[in-house]
Amino acid sequence: MSEATLVLIKPDGVRRNLIGEIISRCEAKGYTVAALKKISPSRDLLAKHYAEHEGKSFYEPLMEFMLSGDIVAIRLEGNRVIEGFRVIAGATDPTVAAPGTIRGDLSRDWGTKVVQNLVHGSDSLESAERELALWF
Ligand code: IDP
Ligand code: MG
Q1: Which ligand has an atom closest to residue 92 CA?
Q2: Which of 26, 29, 110, 117 makes the best surface tag, with the fewest CB within 10 Å?
């Protein structure tokens, strides 16, 4: 039984026409796109998704940013895909994310209150199961 993770292409990735580039990197790595949809999520869904960050200084800017345009949600599958996608995504801060990663190659600091870093990837098996149930 292969593992699954939730990948989101955030509104900056959609606006910058990077959907294909990001999916290509997932597929080139060998992972499988098992489900995919482009959606405009509700605030309620985003609040559930980012519940762990409620109360933090960047929470409101994060919610506004995630509500600022369409998002592509992907169920990505493969052995150790949860860990593996986070490696190909790179560090949260795109300024210091390693070259060769999605965030390191394709994003930077734009001077916004919230870090715009193109993608989300679940950080554990528990998160992946919880988030996939929310989005699919
Ligand atoms: P992750 O996306 O790498 O898992 P998290 O810590 O889960 O990072 O944070 C969720 C999102 O919130 C990040 O991807 C980024 O967009 C934003 N974010 C996280 N930490 C900060 C911060 O210190 N300042 C501004 N935005 C942040
Ligand atoms: Mg996270």
Answers
A1: 1
A2: 110
User: CA torsion, points 102, 114, 34, 27, in degrees to nearest 10?
Assistant: -10
Q: Give me the pLDDT at residue 134, please.
A: 98
> From ligand 1's centre to the CA of 50, what distance in Å?
10
d(Cα 136, Cα 126) in Å, to the nearest integer?
A: 16
CATH number at residue 108: 3.30.70.141
Q: Which domain holds residue 101?
A: 2-135
pLDDT of residue 100: 98
Put simply, whether the predicted model's pTM sits higher than 0.85 gets the answer: yes
The one-letter amino acid at 85: F
Say yes or no: CB of residue 110 within 6 Å of ligand 1: no
107 CB under 6 A from ligand 1? no
Mean pLDDT of 92-100: 98
* Per-residue pLDDT at 63 exceeds 90: yes
Say yes or no: CB of residue 95 within 6 Å of ligand 1: no
- pLDDT of residue 1 exceeding 80: no
Query: Which atom, in ligand 1's list, is nearest to the CA of 116?
Result: 16
In whole angstroms, what is the distance from residue 120 CA to residue 113 CA? 17
